[in-house]
Amino acid sequence: MSLPEVLLWQILRKQPGYVKFRRQHPIGRYVLDFYVLELKLAIEIDGVGHDMGDRPERDDSRDQWLESQGIRMLRIAAKDVLADPAGVADSIVRVCTER
User: Fold this and answer.
1) Which of 37, 58, 63, 77 has a 20 to 30 Å separation from 29 between CA atoms?
2) Which residues belong to any copy of the DUF559 domain (predicted)?
3) Are the C-beta atoms of residues 9 and 87 closer than 8 Å to each other?
């Protein structure tokens, strides 16, 4: 796990808002940073590597496949997590509890 993922996991693993998060969850040939099974919600933390080379195209392909499986994708910039992990965690929980 990257540093932003570790910082976020330290908060999400406590199941804020009674939402159960899974980390490094495999689905098909992919491994999701975080996943909420009950909501079929994938959460990906994107660092600068996601903007390089063919990575944007691979991310798009992955997102399309996940959507075809009924899984919604929530992408969050790693810099946002580094700047305010608690704020990002609160936003994620809010998205989960509003569904």
Assistant:
1) 77
2) 3-96
3) no
User: Could you report how far apart the first and last alpha carbons of the chain are, in Å?
Assistant: 27
Task: Give the per-residue SS3 of 55-79.
Answer: HHHHHHHHHHHHHHCCCEEEEEEHH
16-49 per-position pLDDT tens digit: 999 999 999 999 999 999 999 999 999 999 876 6
Confidence of residue 56 (pLDDT cuts 50, 70, 90): confident
Q: Which residues pair with 43 in a beta bridge?
A: 34, 74
Helix (H, G, I), strand (E, B) or coil at 40: coil
Tell whether the torsion through CA atoms of 11, 25, 32 and 99 is positive or negative.
Answer: negative
